[in-house]
Design brief:
The protein contains three helices and no strands. It is globular. It is an all-alpha fold.
Length: 68
């Protein structure tokens, strides 16, 4: 939501961004803690495993200047 409204540099977002960054493992991946189950939903990563899809998305997001 903050991204779509242009508020990623807002001070209130910084603690959330820091929390997400802190969850990155030493080997450079994020892990899935919860797998959503719903009709039509497909999970690309398994719970507790290296999350390649999530890591791709978050690394891509954190490379843009609005996350810095």
């Amino acid at each position: 939501m903050a991204y779509t409204t242009g508020n990623m540099k807002h001070a209130g977002c910084q603690s959330a961004l820091d929390f997400v960054k802190s969850k990155k493992t030493k080997d450079g991946y994020w892990k899935i803690n919860y797998v959503y189950k719903s009709d039509g939903y497909v999970s690309f990563d398994q719970r507790g495993e290296k999350a390649n899809w999530l890591t791709y998305l978050l690394d891509r997001c954190f490379t843009y200047s609005y996350f810095i």
